[in-house]
Amino acid sequence: MSRRAIKTINWAALAEKLPETEKPALAAFKAKSDQYLRRMTANPEIPQKIDWPYYKKNVAISGLVDKFQKDYESLTIPYPTDKYTSQVEAQEKQVLSQIEEFINQSNERIANATKEIEKIKSLLPFSEMTMEDYFDAFPEQAINAEKPSIWPHIPEVQPENEKGRPDHH
Fold first, then answer.
1. How far apart are CA 39 and CA 32, in angstroms?
2. How far is the C-alpha of 149 from the C-alpha of 169, rounded, in Å?
3. 18 and which of 22, 39, 122, 149 could share a cystine (Cβ 3.0–4.6 Å)?
């Protein structure tokens, strides 16, 4: 990880993908990120070299500069380990596969809708249809002369569907 990693965030593209309700939270996050970036860039990436011979010559206490030099050169500050990039990448792969599945399902729905539109366009206009033409085109919605129903012609109000009534045909 290096300093250039934080500069790769495309805030404008991220803002375009968020709903309006989330944009204040993004602005607050960006402000905090910019604050950290300013603090980080205020310091050099590689610390300046210390002129140890100068201090050995000018410091009166013997051995003190040698001790500081030894301690300074043995000092290592561990960089935080990256525990989350692999999780984010795994989640990204999962989301991308879900998006691909959604696209495939949407394309199927579009194809089915297109077929249905073509079917409807090929029918006679409703104003020119007879009851027989309507029954042939939409048998599940048409009134069946073999099994008449009462108004409003929905299953819930038909006598055979009422509780306590025998099934009359």
1. 11
2. 10
3. 22
Q: What is the 3-state secondary structure (H, E, C) of 71-139?
A: HHHHCCCCCCCCCCHHHHHHHHHHHHHHHHHHHHHHHHHHHHHHHHHHHHHHCCCHHHCCHHHHHHHCC
Give the position of tokens 């009534």: 165
d(C-alpha 85, C-alpha 91), whole Å: 10
State residue 7's pLDDT score. Answer: 60
Q: Are 80 and 42 contacting, i.e. CB atoms less than 8 angstroms apart?
A: no
Which range scores top for mean pLDDT: 10-14, 63-67, 103-107, 120-124? 103-107
In this structure, what token pair is assigned to residue 169? 């045909």
Instruction: For 8-17, write each residue's pLDDT tens digit.
Output: 788 888 889 8
